[in-house]
Amino acid sequence: MCGTENNQEVFRNRLIITDKEIEENLKVYTRNYSKPYMEAFCKHVLNHIRKVWYRAEFIGFDDLPKRNNPDSPLIYATNHSGMAFPWDAIVFISEIANRKYSDPDGIRALISPMLTKYPYMCPFLIDGLWWKAGCINATLLNFETGMKINQSNILIFPEGIDGIGKGFDKRYEFQSFKTSFLRMSIRYKSDVIPFYVVNGEFNNPLAYNIKPLTKFVRKFGMPFFPLGPVIFMAIFQPWIFYVSLPSKLTFIMGKPIKVYDMVEQKPYGDFSQKELKSTAEEIRQIMQNELSSYKEKYGKKFYDVRGLLKSMWKNRRYFFRYFPMFWPLVMTYFDVNYDEKMGEESLKFSFKKCLKTIIKRPIVLAMYLPVLGWLFIWLKSLRIMKKRF
Asked: Is residue 366 situated within a structural domain?
C-alpha cells in the first residue's frame, strides 16, 4: 500500500510545473520562429503543394470554434496518417498560416522531439524548418507553457509517434492516446477540438511496421522504417523518402469534447494515471467512431486521379513548385534566398540565385544521387548534430 501511495505522489509531483519553470521555458515559443517566414513559405511553396498535389479540402473550417475559456487556448487533436512523412500535419498548418489568423486564434503544433533532434527528419535537411514554422517539441513543460502564456491555440497528436508508425494494416485505427492533453484540458478548463484526416493513409500505401526493424532504426533517430514499395524507390532517389503519393487529403471538423466535464471534479494533482488512461480510452473511442464514419463518407476516392490531372493541367505554369521531384530544390531555394526585409523581391527566380542555393547547400544534390546520396545525407546530419551537441 505504501508503494502505491509513493508512486501516486511521484506522479502528482511530475504533473506540477511551477511559474518559474514556465518563465524560464518561454524561449521555446520564440526560438527561430518567424511568422513572416512561415506565411511566405506557404504562399510560394506549400500553397501549391496543398492545392494541386493534395487538393486539400477543409470541411467545417469556415469558422473556427470560439474559445469556451477566453483565458486558455483551445486544444486541437487529430489522427496521424500511417507510415509516411507528416504531410497531413504540414498541409493543415499551411492552411491555418495561409488564413493569417491573428494571435491568439492561430495554431501552433506540438510535434515529436525526434523530428527536431535528428536533421534528416527535417524536410530535405533544411535545418530548423520545424522551428521556423512555429512547431514546438511535445513535452509536458512545453505544453503547459503554451497553455499558460495563451499566445495561440495548440495542435496535438494524441497518438504520438505511434500514430505515424502504425502500418497500413492498422490504417484509420487510432492507437493508444497519451494523457497530457487531458491534463491540460482539465487544468485549464479548455475544450478539445477534434478534427480528422481522411485519405492520408494512402500517402504511403502498403507500408508496414516490422517491430524488430523499428527497434533497430530508432537507435539512429528514425521513429520507424516504413517497409513497403515507396521506401525501395527512395534508395535510388533519396528525395522520395520525404514526399508521398498524391492522396486527396480531406480534413473534417469534429464536435468539441469537454474533458473537464467527463471526469470527477477534484484538484488537478489528485488525478491518478489510471483515471486519466481510462478517460483517454473513452475519448479515443469517441474519436474513432467519428473517424470511421468520415472515412466511409469521404474516403472512397483516395487519389481521385481525374481530379489530380485536371488540377495539374490547370496549374501547369507552377509545375516546378508542386511536383514532388522539385520539392527539395524549391524548398531549399526559398530557405536560402528568403529575406524578410526584401520580402517578395528576395524570392524572384534567377539563375544566379539557383547557383547560390547549390553552392550554399550542396546537400540538395544528394537528394537526387542514387544510393550514394544517402551517405552524404548521413554525413551532413552527423555534422549538424556535432555542432548542436
From this structure: no
Residue 388: inside a domain: no
Specify the CATH number for the domain of residue 274. Answer: 3.40.1130
Rounded percentage of the chain residues whose pLDDT exceeds 70: 96
pTM: 0.92
Positive or negative, the CA dihedral 335, 339, 344, 350 is negative
Number of folded domains that form the chain: 1
C-beta of residue 203 within 8 angstroms of C-beta of residue 81: yes
Cell numbers that stand for 262 in this block: 467527463
- Contact status, residue 132 vs residue 38, Cβ threshold 8 Å: yes
Q: List the domain range (segments joined by +) for residue 35.
A: 2-237+244-319
Say yes or no to pLDDT of 82 above 80: no
* Exposed / middle / buried, residue 329 (Cβ in 10 Å: 0-12, 13-18, 19+): buried
- The verdict on residue 67 lying in a domain is yes
Is 363 within a domain?
Answer: no
Instruction: Please write the tens of the pLDDT for every residue from 247-260.
Output: 999 999 999 999 99
Burial class (CB in 10 A: 0-12, 13-18, 19+), 249: buried
